[in-house]
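User: quick one
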Amino acid sequence: MSETICVLPCNGLDKCAGDLSRRAALQLTQSEDVELICPVLLNQNKSRYEKALEAGDLTVIDGCNTRCASKLAGDLGLAIKDKVNVSEVAKALDIKLGVEIREDQETQAVVQAVLEKINSSVIDRAESEFVEPESIDYNTFSHGKFIFKVPTANYFFNENDCWVTVSGKLARIGVSDYVQQNLSDILYVDPPEIGDEFEQFDDLGSIESSKAVFEIISPVSGTVVAVNTGLNDAPELVNESPYEKGWLVEVRLSDFEEDQDLLHDCPAYFEFLQRKVAEVDV
Amino acid sequence: MSESTFMGVERDRIDWSPRIDFLKCNDCMDCVEFCPHQVFEVDENAKPKLKVKNPNNCVVFCRACSKTCGPDAITFPDKAETTKMIKAIRKAEKAAEKEVEANE
Ligand code: SF4
Ligand code: SF4
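Assistant: Done. Structure below.
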């Protein structure tokens, strides 16, 4: 594996969990393919790490649930490929970390588990979970009394107003804010079957409001690995959060590079949508 | 909407619209009611009553109305073929653009 990773740990001075995140990060940097990112310096001068972050995927090690490191990455608009939370790892091992910084068998075991977790997910990143971005920025425009939003980056759209956002070999698919507003209150989501294989522009189920049924036309080709079960009880999430909590289908991509040929990136879709909205409603 | 396009390709160069099998169609008009894009037209005095009047209004890759059709009378062109054709046109246009640039 020649893949390099950038490791951003928590600052590690506040309490035991933080200290362990720092220790795990330092151990990781003993490998050649790992670049350590100091959170304080990153915050002060992001450009210092620009090269490293371009070359390698970012792994974040949070100490506790304040998740300072993840939030820092989110604030700076860095894409997180993998994250580990020391407190959660400790909890899974049934180890209470407490506040006091200490070096003993228990803490060593936690560090070891954190390292294993990171290593195994680097090896099979393709198999790993979909990693949600920490925060998403939006561009908006208004038309009459409507305001439409489109993310500023990391989403791709087909002209059927469905989006895809990629995390390794996995991707999530949903509908744009425009669809959601057109349909108004969404009452029912009819998802595809897990395991279904599909081509770009095949349909991936539908969503229904009292006004109409909207067929989800897939922006990519792939295999369905999950559907958003949260929508069973709360289909309104598609209205409330069309690009995030209201995602519809999670898929394993088969050939994203090829699919991209017929997709718009965020700025292009933003323009496309402005034209479309102006045309529909003259 | 004279300049309508799909991924930069003029809409009228893309052959995508519902095809009605009038041996199966029972004139229920569910498809007409369903589609919001004025693709169909109904003429009570004609035979058949249903007509695909504005095929280029049909949303490329949409197949939704065929699901409302009980007797399964609606079909569409082959999606893979259509995708291939759109990609080919885009490629040719990009190459042509490059040529123009090179000649300038
Ligand atoms: S829904 Fe089917 S049967 Fe009914 S009018 Fe349309 S094509 Fe004919
Ligand atoms: S495929 Fe979609 S857009 Fe085309 S006629 Fe049917 S419902 Fe209308």
